[in-house]
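debug: dumping io for the single-chain case to check the tokenizer round-trip. Nothing else runs in this session.
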Amino acid sequence: MDLKKLLVVLCALAGLACGAGSSAAREQPAAAPPAPVQQQPQPPRAPQPQPAPEKAKDTVELGETVVLKAGETAEVASKDVSIRFARLVSDSRCPEGMVCVWAGEAVISLTLAEPGRGERTTAELTSTGRGGAQSVEFAACRVDLVAVSSGGDQVTLRVSKA
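debug: decoded output
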């Protein structure tokens, strides 16, 4: 037998073997459907408390630092001034565990108020000072941005006399 005929015969046998396996699978009876799973009734969940729109106020003395989460307010003890961390405006800082060419910067928004005089202002502070100010002066107080947490949900501020 020459090589071509042998190759044809082997291919034919292989084809038959494959076809026999697939037809054998088709001839098997279908498996019974799985039994329905009975779900255990879930106990009713207690209603989750809604977070307060504005958190409790901290008090800070001139020359001290204060840590605020987004939405929290601090009162300056010797002044009629409040400082509220309104929100994180932007954050281009390098994520933890990554190596970056530039560290990036975070920009936060503060609301400063002097309730006794009815004055209020907003200020954006940057973590590096490259793209904007790192401090703001309001009502004889100076507020410096010391740090922004890695998630941007918490800031450390230093309050001093302007």
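debug: round-trip ok. The radius of gyration is 34 Å.
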